[in-house]
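ERR on first pass: missing label on line 2. Operator R.T. fixed the label and resubmitted. Corrected input:
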Amino acid sequence: EVKLQQSGDELVRPGASVKMSCKASGYTFTDYAMHWVKQSPGQGLEWIGTIIPLIDTTSYNQKFKGKATLTADKSSNTAYMELSRLTSEDSAVYYCARSTLDAWGQGASVTVSS
Amino acid sequence: DVVLTQTPPTLSATIGQSVSISCRSSQSLLDSDGDTYLNWLLQRPGQSPQLLIYSVSNLESGVPNRFSGSGSETDFTLKISGVEAEDLGVYYCMQATHAPLTFGSGTKLEIK
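pass 2 clean. output:
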């Protein structure tokens, strides 16, 4: 069974950074790219970027350049996303999704509050 | 960026009714490789999105065949032939032909 297990919900201070993980199982991690998607409260879906773990190549939505950094660890089949200089606008649920969109993580909520 | 306009924004249906959702793109989604990367997703309340249809009309494995997709270039439709209670949620179209990938604003399906 293909599964993407995301790390837990986070409460972070404004101006801080947060790094979340997405552990893949049930398939060969390097055979697929990984998308990251943002869902703000009560809102729709936004594509943040994609990483190709096999060659460590990333592509970003221009809107999230400088905000999000995508990495992957092939040895642990885990993708990571770090969000920096957090503001209230970054409070949202973040999903990882396999590039074919047939598998999604359960989502990780980030709340930015002092 | 490609803008995907979904209509209607909300839909109320009775069990067994057939419904359609439209997704119109600001640009053609026909890729240079000949494929059209327009997908449909369903997000049930409190859940992650799930893939229903990929490349316009291909039913994802395990998805009931009451769901079907059609269209080309800039106009696409998701049809549910005989709504069931489990179909409630928000439906999104999503394109992966042009960067950045973009999503429609969603259509909320309510069951009467």
